[in-house]
Design a protein that fits this description.
By secondary structure, the protein is an all-alpha fold. It is 77% helix and 0% strand. It is elongated, with a radius of gyration of 25 Å. Keywords: Membrane, Transmembrane, Transmembrane helix.
Length: 229
């Protein structure tokens, strides 16, 4: 009968992946399973092979960078998945019936700017402050959950990080700085209104909609995921 990796040895494989800088539990699981299967296959040919030696032999097959390439590859895949989710939810605001509400917001902002163009910077500042507050609270809750469960999930980390926020802030900010010396007119105010509303909806998508659906997407990505926090 072919030898099998024991539960104790499986735990050792998890520890091994952590020691080699794999901090995400989903990747630890994938790599530990891969190593266990590879070791069991090697035992078919070499049944007396020591577990530790079999483990090191399989690890060497990953090359001089170890698990780094797998981690980067998985991170790229899940980042792409997150971006697809984000744009999918964001585009819903420009389809019926939500586009009606989006147009209403643009009209309201346009009316406000018609009274005072300086309101653009005030609205932009308010969006940024609310976004920062939400991002900080999400991050604190995320850290507390990691401390409680002892597990980090890559997609969850990407959702919490929301890296695109600061990059996209450059768009409404540049428009403001470039148009401050321009005499306000209808076209300028419509443009500023659309940009402000689009920026607000983007922030709402990455900071409220996706996090509220995080459990759903995490369960779809990791069947073993169990949200207990």
């Amino acid at each position: 009968m072919a030898k099998k990796v024991s539960e104790e040895q499986m735990e050792e494989l998890f520890t091994f992946t952590r020691k080699h800088f794999v901090e995400y539990y989903d990747l630890q699981t994938e790599l530990a399973d891969h190593l266990a299967n590879a070791i069991e296959e090697s035992w078919i040919t070499y049944p007396t092979l020591d577990f530790a030696k079999a483990k090191e032999q399989e690890f060497k097959k990953f090359g001089i960078f170890g698990f780094m390439g797998i981690v980067e590859q998985r991170q790229a895949v899940l980042t792409k998945k997150y971006q697809k989710l984000m744009w999918g939810y964001f585009k819903e605001f420009f389809k019926l019936p939500r586009i009606i509400l989006t147009i209403l917001f643009i009209l309201i902002v346009y009316k406000i700017l018609s009274f005072n163009i300086i309101a653009y910077s005030l609205i932009l500042g308010a969006i940024v402050l609310i976004s920062i507050y939400r991002l900080v609270t999400m991050w604190v809750k995320h850290k507390q959950k990691i401390k409680q469960t002892g597990k980090k999930w890559l997609l969850e980390e990407i959702i919490t990080r929301c890296g695109g926020m600061i990059m996209l802030l450059n768009v409404p900010a540049q428009i403001f700085f470039r148009l401050t010396d321009v005499v306000p007119n209808t076209i300028v105010m419509w443009l500023m209104s659309i940009v402000l509303v689009a920026f607000a909806l983007y922030q709402y998508t990455i900071l409220y909609i996706i996090p509220s659906k995080a459990e759903e997407h995490l369960m779809a990505t990791y069947p073993e995921y169990n949200l207990k926090f």
